[in-house]
Each structure stands twice: as C-alpha cells, then as structure tokens.
Amino acid sequence: MSISVKEEKKVFGGRQIRYEHASRVLSCTMQFSVFLPPQAEQGSVPAVYWLSGLTCTDENFSSKAGAQRVAAELGLALIIPDTSPRGDDVPDDADGAYDFGKGAGFYVNATQAPWQQHYRMYDYIVEELPGLVEANLPVTEERAISGHSMGGHGALVIGLRNADRYASISAFSPIVHPIAVPWGKKAFSGYLGSDESTWRDYDATLLLAASEGKNVPPILIDQGDADNFLAEQLRTEFFVEANESVGAGAKVRMQPGYDHSYYFIATFIEDHLRFHASNLR
Q1: CB of 235 within 8 A of CB of 180?
Q2: Is 149 an annotated catalytic residue?
Q3: Is 118 a catalytic residue?
Q4: What share of the chain in percent tops pLDDT 70?
C-alpha cells in the first residue's frame, strides 16, 4: 500500500514528515508522522515507535517533546501514529468524552459494536503501520516502542506481547493496570465487552506477572510523583510489584516534582532515546 506526503519540514539535519494513507485495518484514512534522521540519506535506520496519550494526534509528540535533536544524533527514525481511527464514518463517544472514542483508541482490537469495524489499533500498530513504513521509507525492521499515558499502556502491552519484534520498551506515566482503574474499565467495557477475562491481554501488569521464564525486552519507565493522575488512573505500584515478583528487571524511576505534561517528557526523552539506541545496536 502507498503513502502520500502531507507536510514536510527540515529539522536538525533530518526531515519531519506527515503522511496519509488508506488503512485496511482501521477502514479509514489515517495520518502518521515520521522523523527521518540525516543518516537515513545514506541507508536505512532503526526506528522508535511512539504512542501518544488521550486526546492526542500524531503531532503532539513531534511538536512538543524535543526528540528530534537526539534522534538525529543517534540515527533513529521516530514513527508517530495517531491515537485512534478518524473520519466522519468512524463512531465516537456519544457524549463527546475525551477518554473514549476518537483520540482514545487504547491500542486494543475492539470486539463490540459499533467499534469493531474501525477500532483495531493493536493490529494497526503491530502489523499494518510497520509494514507500510518499512516498505516505503529507509527504516529497518529493528524496532523499539515507547509512549505516554494511554500510549505508555499501549507500548508496554504491545512490547510485552511481541517481544520478538521490539528490542526495548519505554513509557512515561503509563496506565500500567487498566483493568483496575476508571480509564481502563470504561475503555475495555466499551471496546471489549463485559467479559473481563478478555481484558487481560491488554493489561501490562498482568502480562508482566505472567512473564516468568519468558523473553522480556529491557523496559524503562519514568513516572512523576506530582502527576495528578497517579493515584487514581496510573497506579505504578502494581507494575513495580509484578516486576519484583518475576524478576523482570524493568527500571521504574519515580521523578520528584514532575507532572503528566509534555514538559516531563521533554525533560527525560533523551534518556529514553539513548536507552533504545543502546538496545537497537
């Protein structure tokens, strides 16, 4: 399948590009953003896939995180998808809520009507988007995955379930135990239905707890202790307990005074990109 350029800017010697394509998996037209470092002019480069959080599009990370400078130095492509299917034919939350529907795909494959036709973000991120990127751009099959909040949830789940596809996983302020918090319960009951046994495949804490003896990629998590969502929605302590119980070796850093914003991401994104670069080589 083909992709078309919607916008292109030069930055730190590389190219920040926004693409559009017809998605077979999501049954709609999708946009995604890519940073290609200057090294991509000479040959294919490895990629970090970034998954954004609730209400975001593919442009939040590229315009706010300040990641291109370090990615250019390290020779990393940044692949930044949207957070949900889009378009007039795509259903949305009836009340216009920010935490369900458009902008809130939660990186699952929906099974319930009317969401199942379009809301298949898990398959889109794992299969369709990498296939498009690697077929059309100077990007190798060496991948790492990262994300923020809802996207941190997506990065952890996708990385843990596909350890052979990702060299490393990282997350900022991730929803680590969605089946136990309001955001996750709302999204999963809507997209997946009332049978909570079907939710378990999309819960990073449960996946990590069941990972003993399995291949787990290196994991880095940063969480601000001044994050106003920490106590109710993020619940980092559950992931820490699972990590310790199975000896998975994930590094979870509580950062004093930092909140849930992109200022937090901008502060520590260099650490995350260097972490991924060290595992992609």
Answers
A1: yes
A2: yes
A3: no
A4: 100
> Out of 118, 260, 272, 276, which one is annotated catalytic?
260
Question: Is the model's pTM score more than 0.85?
Answer: yes
For the chain, what are the domain ranges? Answer: 4-280
23, 52, 146, 149: which is the annotated catalytic residue? Answer: 149
pLDDT tens-digit map of 37-90: 999 999 999 999 999 999 999 999 999 999 999 999 999 999 999 999 999 999
Please tell me which residue in 84, 227, 272, 276 is annotated as part of the active site.
227
Active site residue 197: no
State the DSSP string of the chain.
---EEEEEEEETTEEEEEEEEEETTTTEEEEEEEEE-GGGGTS-EEEEEEE--TT--THHHHHHS--HHHHHHHT-EEEEE-SS--STTS---TT--TTSBTTB-TT-B--STTTTTT-BHHHIIIIIHHHHHHHHSSEEEEEEEEEETHHHHHHHHHHHHTTTT-S-EEEES----GGGSHHHHHHHHHHH-S-GGGTGGG-HHHHHHT-TTS----EEEEEETT-TTIIIII-HHHHHHHHHHHT---EEEEETT--SSHHHHHHHHHHHHHHHHHHH-
Tens digit of each residue's pLDDT (9 = 90 or more) over 247-266: 999 999 999 999 999 999 99
Residue 1 has a pLDDT of 73
Q: Tell me which fold the domain 4-280 belongs to.
A: Rossmann fold (3.40.50)
